[in-house]
Fold this protein.
Amino acid sequence: MENTKKISLEEFIAKKKPDIHGLNRFHDDIVALHNSGYSLKQIHEYVSLNGYKASYSSFTRWVKRHVNFEREAIETVKTEENSVKLISSLDTKTQETTPPTSESNKEKIERMKASMEKLLGGETFDEQFAALNKEKKAG
């Protein structure tokens, strides 16, 4: 059967941005704030200051249904490990091959590092990463 698509997936994605409404647009911020030690009450205040109009009980109900903080923390760790691997590999290449990084990505990496430091009991991610590299080279 012949491909009868009028527009490719890539073209559609380039032309249309997904509709992100309600609390979905704050998902990453909610996870980052929670991982940084903020209470749900404080996070509700943050999203309310940024245009969310529903009650605290509606907010907590949405969070319970849509945010798995345990899974998000694990994914943050995995993402941070991948980011560090990418950064390490880029350090050995020339500046010309380094992909551009938007300011928001840099902020996300810093937020992930802060989350990792909290999980590591105050030890900075860079210190932990250096210790792991030292162990790897020794072993």
Remarks:
- The radius of gyration is 20 Å.
